[in-house]
Specification:
The structure is a single chain. The chain is α+β, with helices and mostly antiparallel strands. It has seven helices and four strands; from the N terminus they run βαβαββααααα. A four-stranded mixed sheet has the order 2-1-3-4, covered by helices on one side. α1 packs parallel to α3 and α1 runs antiparallel to α6. The chain is globular and about 45 Å long. The structure holds glutathione.
Length: about 200
């Protein structure tokens, strides 16, 4: 199997690196320089020229959650992701979509409107931050409920869902949004203990 991963430090590509390390698959790393973003080389793999992106056996794939699932599906013997077609896989999708649409969209918008990495300061809308925080916290409370009684998201064991969702939770922690969410903090501590974890936390 040949795998090329376009990545950059603590960007969402960290999810894919983590999955590849858990899977024990060899890969070639490309990028690791901010100039890769928006480059023609990356646009040939990701239509928006964003990270992460991969080429697996010559086939391009983008979106970090899709990449993590594709990697984990390649090594069924490692049991890194609930089997396709099972109810557990539906729960995998549930938590992944919940994290990406009901949580990550808000912290991502706050980041875009705070750092000048993508949008110049003149285009920032500071008023949006308070609203983003409110929506993130509302969803975080729902995830907190689940993780108060479960150590992991699916099948009560570490899986790809935890790779994807814990990155989103850590994104919220970075923005100071986990106050009072003890189960979420303990969850981040738990997944951070894994040898291959790529989460960066202060
Ligand atoms: N939904 C995408 C998000 C991709 C994304 O926004 N990547 C950021 C780095 S974490 C990026 O490349 N930003 C550059 C830009 O927006 O131009 C995923 O999960 O892969």
């Amino acid at each position: 199997m040949s795998i090329i991963l376009y990545e950059l430090g603590p960007s969402r590509s960290a999810r894919c690196r983590w999955a590849l390390l858990e899977a024990g698959l060899e890969f070639e790393s490309r990028g690791n320089d901010p100039s890769i973003i928006g480059s023609d080389e990356l646009k040939a793999v990701h239509p928006l020229g964003k990270l992460p992106a991969v080429v697996i056996d010559g086939e391009p794939l983008f979106e970090s959650a899709a990449i993590v699932a594709a990697i984990c599906d390649r090594v069924p013997e490692k049991r890194l992701i609930a089997e396709a077609g099972t109810w557990a896989r539906a729960l995998h999708d549930q938590w992944v979509f919940f994290a990406l649409t009901e949580m990550e969209s808000w912290v991502s918008s706050s980041e875009l409107n705070t750092l000048d990495f993508v949008l110049p300061k003149s285009e920032h809308v500071p008023a949006i931050i308070e609203q983003n925080d409110r929506f993130f916290v509302k969803s975080a409370a729902a995830l907190e409920e689940h993780l108060r009684v479960h150590e992991y998201l699916v099948e009560d064991r570490f899986t790809a869902a935890d790779i994807i969702v814990s990155y989103t939770v850590a994104f919220g922690e970075e923005q100071g949004l986990l106050d009072g969410f003890d189960a979420l903090s303990r969850y981040l501590d738990r997944v951070s203990e894994r040898h291959h974890c790529t989460l960066t936390r202060d």
